[in-house]
Design a protein that fits this description.
The protein is α/β, with parallel strands linked by helices and about 475 residues long. The chain has 18 helices and 20 strands. It has two domains: about 270 residues, Rossmann fold, CATH 3.40.50.2000; about 190 residues, 3-Layer(aba) Sandwich (Rossmann fold).
Length: about 475
């Protein structure tokens, strides 16, 4: 197939979270299977021109707010994927992908309206006639709206299906009504069947309304966003009406990047056959690195996370502190200043039992996954989650909330012929989290621990099944 992909981030070029991991891995896997994949990204300041083999490939005139702006396309080819960067310095040559110093960029409506239109104009300029257009999250929701509104009679996109993947309903791209005209839309789009959302313009809603097929990143999350107002954020009714076009497809993990048998960040590599010895060596090394007492008899709890309300770490603090006489804690996270201070204060109070790393460091994250006995992810909601899957690849037993992709990948009892691989609690419930931690800490010293480690390491977290499912939906969208 000829697959046009548009996203606001993708590894290895630009990243703020799991969206980048998914887009990067999925496009590369599609390219490796022989599909003709063309990926469009904004050319942010952090994407250095020196890495772009082709320089400026095409100048574009992109319609915007009743006029047109001159935009360049920079190009490179990587691992079977043609990558085009929308080069408009006024909007993208700045610090931060979506904001800086804790604040969103004030012109994000115009930035991603331009990007969405440039994707379609860019595809025409390079002669890429897609079978399907795959767009991701609110930043590209207007691509679907433009296709239906401005390109429905354009022969270049005749027969092209559009698939919109929602990675997190909490991020909606909601802007004042003025964004409607600025994005190239008119009064006819200001309706409950268009872009209007409680008196604002919603780019996310634009994708939900206008795409041919919708996907999200786990089966449980696909159900939750249709049934629950605190998961659907006011769009649950619309999503329910589109239920026949909405699919949950679990994300995969990059098995080359996350492989303890080949991970150069670890003091000792290991696999399922020597996991106990390998993890013991990694645990002792991390304890020394972090100034913790080198004890093998106490479980080491690891956290690698954004410090954000969604992740439930404020609840975790109350459950963790009374248990630090029986375990240790290493946290890698950045984000909310109040949570940052709370973990800093915990580290000060419990020196020797807690280490808090305040800046993101990829090799250090790898060492946490390998050294930890327990991986803590008590999210209030979690569309998919990659951390719990990575942890299990490294033989670390997850303690997670029973929500979204966490619920689909972690089970405390045998399920579907698979042994138990972790521990679960109710989302947002500190007392239930404390009970789950007690069960995990107790199990650490029991004969039942090794089978959970083994079950986690035996899990299939590859992209293979997920990519096959995406291709099925791509074909359905193209044949609609």
């Amino acid at each position: 197939m000829k697959i046009l992909v548009a996203a606001s981030e993708a590894v290895p070029f630009c990243k703020t979270g799991g969206l980048a991991d998914v887009v990067g891995a999925l496009t590369q896997r599609l390219g490796a299977l022989g599909h003709d994949v063309c990926l469009f990204l904004p050319k942010y300041r952090s994407i250095r021109a020196a890495s772009l083999e082709g320089g400026i490939a095409h100048p574009l005139k992109v319609p915007l707010a009743g006029g047109a702006v001159d935009v360049g396309l920079s190009f490179l080819h990587r691992r079977g994927v043609s990558v085009y960067f929308v080069d408009y310095p006024l909007y993208f040559d700045r610090e931060g992908l979506y904001g800086n110093a804790g604040k969103d960029h004030e012109d994000n409506d115009r930035r991603f309206a331009l990007f969405s239109r440039a994707v379609l104009e860019g595809a025409k300029a390079i002669g890429f006639k897609p079978d399907v257009i795959h767009i991701h999250d609110w930043q590209t929701g207007l691509v679907a709206a433009h296709l239906k509104r401005h390109y429905k009679n354009d022969p270049h996109f005749a027969g092209a299906g559009c698939v919109f993947t929602i990675h997190n309903m909490a991020y909606q791209g909601n802007f004042p009504r003025a964004a409607l005209e600025a994005g190239g839309f008119g009064p006819e789009d200001w309706s409950s069947d268009g872009l209007e959302y409680y008196g604002q313009v919603s780019y996310l809603k634009g994708g939900i309304v206008h795409a041919d097929k919708l996907t999200t990143v786990s089966s449980s999350y696909a159900r939750e966003i249709q049934e629950s107002p605190d998961r659907g954020f006011g769009l649950e009714g619309l999503l329910s009406r589109r239920s026949k076009d909405l699919y949950g497809i679990l994300n995969g993990v990059d098995l080359e990047t996350w492989d303890p048998s080949r991970d150069a960040s670890l003091i000792r590599k290991y696999g399922p056959g020597d996991a106990a010895a390998g993890k013991a060596a990694c645990k002792e090394a991390l304890q020394r690195e972090c100034g913790l007492e080198a004890r093998g008899d106490r479980p080491l709890i690891g956290v690698v996370s954004r410090l954000d309300y969604q992740k439930g770490l404020d609840i975790a603090l109350g459950a963790l502190e009374p248990r630090l006489d029986r375990c240790q804690l290493v946290v890698l996270g950045t984000g909310d200043p109040s949570l940052t201070e709370m973990f800093s204060a915990l580290e000060r109070r419990r020196a020797g039992a807690v280490h808090f790393h305040r800046s993101f460091n990829e090799p250090f994250a790898h060492r946490i996954y390998a050294a930890s006995d327990i991986f803590l992810m008590p999210s209030r909601f979690e569309p998919c989650g990659l951390g719990q899957m990575i942890a299990m690849r490294y033989g670390t037993v997850p303690v997670v909330s029973r929500t979204g992709g966490l619920n689909d990948t972690v089970h405390e009892e045998p399920r579907d012929g698979q042994d138990a691989n972790g521990f679960l609690c109710a989302p947002g419930d500190g007392e239930d989290l404390a009970r789950a931690l007690d069960r995990a800490i107790a199990a650490f010293a029991s004969p039942g621990w090794a089978p959970r480690v083994k079950a986690g390491m035996a899990g299939d977290f590859s992209w293979d099944r997920s990519v096959d499912r995406y291709l099925e939906i791509f074909r359905e969208a193209a044949a609609r």
